[in-house]
Amino acid sequence: MSFKSLGLSDALLKAISKKGYTEPSPIQEKVIPHVIKGKDVLASAQTGTGKTAGFTLPILQLLSNKPSTKKRFIRVLILTPTRELAAQILASVNDYGIYSNIKATVVFGGVNQNPQVKAIRNGIDVLVATPGRLLDLHNQKLLSLANVEILVLDEADRMLDMGFARDINKILALLPKKRQNLLFSATFSKEIKELAGKFLHHPVMVEATPENTTVEVIAQKVYRVDKGMKTKLLIKLISEGSWKQVLVFTRTKHGANKLSVKLQKAGITSAAIHGNKSQGARTQALAGFKKNKVRVLVATDIAARGLDIPLLPHVVNFELPNVAEDYVHRIGRTGRAGQSGEAISLVCIDEVSYLKGIERLIKQQIEKEILKGFEPEDIPSEKKKSGGRKPPRRKFGNSSGKSSGKSRNFKKKKKAS
User: Fold this and answer.
1) What is the mean pLDDT of the chain?
2) Which domains does the chain show, CATH number per domain?
3) Helices (DSSP H) in 266-378: which residue ranges?
4) Quick check: 46 and 103 in contact, CB under 8 A?
5) Is the separation of the CB atoms in 282 and 84 below 8 Å?
6) What is the pLDDT of residue 383?
7) Which pLDDT score is estimated for 413?
8) What pLDDT, on the 0 to 100 scale, is given for residue 324?
9) Which of 109, 297, 299, 388 qualifies as a FRET site for 261, CA 20 to 30 Å off?
10) How many angstroms separate the CA atoms of 222 and 348, rounded?
11) Which residues are within 8 A (CB) of 267 and not within 5 positions of it... i.e. 6 or more apart?
12) What helix, strand, coil percent values describe the chain, rounded to 5?
């Protein structure tokens, strides 16, 4: 199927061609026709599926079909959980709308509001926003949502995880009752379905991938390791594997900072991004990572959500998330656009229960290995057992003692160059 067959205008087709795309992704193919028809949509799509263009393109089409009056009002509101994702969505709107007479801006916290307010006062058609800053500006009477025709909730599951449910309800109360609604989420959880029931009208349900599944081209592996040896093992893997671009996840902001400093001391360029970092620092760190000036980006789940890092080869769970679904979100940062990727998890004794929960969710046993000198607390070292003899390199797998291996649905990662 071509983009043209989806009913998009020549201006949009020209913009799509300029970006080098020739065929729509599955989520785009499924969502775009419904949005153009004015239907409400409830879509499940994981990171890297092309969902942003899936709602951006048809929205631009609808706006172009009914041009703004001389004075522009906010006709489309796109809500998103993080600053980074908001900025990326705005970039997408501007890229695809380059040949259309559409104006857009973004508002989020952590930066001066004056430039944002000025852009709104000059007149815009599309507003991309995080909930907190949007409500702040509305409470100051610096913007009006009275003319919104289309509402998009992107990464809705993450917004709920971040505690935005109350803010979302407040925003819904400020919008015209008659409007088109689009909700995108990585999963159709009970909470998402309840939220959808509050404001979607007879929605079309679309799933780009089966619920709660991982990307098939990602090679997954677990290293069982002593908690105090994780940093040393990570340095060994990065150095000996000659990894050039690695996204590492920690559970806390403090942990991200601490690990980044240790990597720097080991001669591995690194930067940390999390909620306490200024927007400027986060933008600079991400830019350095994309340009390969920063080798390792250490991030918390919230800070990494929505990061657009094409062809990312390695993701490392320095600490496993205590919510199994977050593991799927994390490793989904690699293996995008049909490329192969590798997801490594460093698991100590305290995280074994988390690992079991993840394996139940993805319905797969992940390959496990133990390296000499990094034995976890629950497994005695070979040195103790053998009286100092050199132990062989061992793999931990199923009950037969053999490595469980990767699922047949997961392609093996090519050797890192």
Assistant:
1) 84
2) 4-207 (3.40.50.300), 218-396 (3.40.50.300)
3) 279-290, 301-304, 324-331, 352-362
4) no
5) yes
6) 42
7) 43
8) 81
9) 109
10) 10
11) none
12) 40, 15, 45
